[in-house]
Amino acid sequence: MIEETYLIFKIIVIIITTILISKIVNKVLLGYFKKITKRLKIEETVYVFIRRIIIIVIYVIGIIIITSIIPGFQTFAKSLVAASGVLGIVIGLAAQKTVANLIAGISIAITRPFRVGDHVTIENEYGTVEDITLNQVVVNTWENKRLIIPNSVIRDRTIINWSIKDTFVLWHIDFNVAYDTNIDLARSIIIDETNKHENVMIDKDINVSLIDLGDFAMKLRLTFWVSDRNVAWRTGCDIMENVKKRFDKENIEIPFPCRTIMFKGNDKNNEQNKDI
């Protein structure tokens, strides 16, 4: 009788403990997901589903512990543990990509490498972060295309965030000029046309450097600053066009590759061919 009373007491304690643990975990998870919701756009059904799965796991563990202390149920408890393990493996394999995306999404929410509205370069595409969820990131590219990247993929990619700290961008353009070109004249033209552009920050350095002596041309690299990545590409195109027009006026040549192909005859083979 005493053993039965003690067993019932243990079962009651385990039940109460399981219920308390589930309520505490549920409250903690609810507060945690509310904090994440402020950083990410998360549908309520997503974190409700996750919370319920965790709570169910806690209750299953409680049931396994109870069945393990009841005489005659040890074998059933072992079978239940084995079945739970197999079921967990099956579910894990079936939903590994989903779980990986969820974990990566939580990681993005904590580390915050980028936020909605940031200008980024991802997968060699430049655009604005439009949406971040626990499953994916949506980037609106400069061509107004929606780039949808799973969180598990974006976690392993190198990301350029143009919006961190200040938005100033150092941009560069390369110009090829012929070897007989006056470098100082070419440099002055490039700097002059760069200074004229309204998007160029004239309070920062503008440099033109000779960076390469190629097979057919000398390469001059222009570096300048603009206030934002959004205007950098367009500004570079404008400067390139204006410099080309000035080069034409000043008779500065922009050369193109030329190759001379020489065929060397084989006299012995020709004589043999003639004999044949």
Outline the structure in words.
This protein has helices at 2-39, 44-69, 74-94, 96-111, 151-154, 183-196, 229-249, 267-275; strands at 119-122, 125-132, 136-141, 146-150, 160-161, 169-177, 207-213, 218-226. The protein has 276 residues and is an alpha+beta fold. It folds into three domains: 2-94, no CATH class; 113-161, SH3 type barrels (Roll), CATH 2.30.30.60; 169-249, Alpha-Beta Plaits. The strands form two sheets. It has a five-stranded antiparallel β-sheet. α2 packs antiparallel against α3 (74-94). The longest helix is centred in the N-terminal third of the chain and has 38 residues, at 2-39. It is elongated. The termini are far apart.
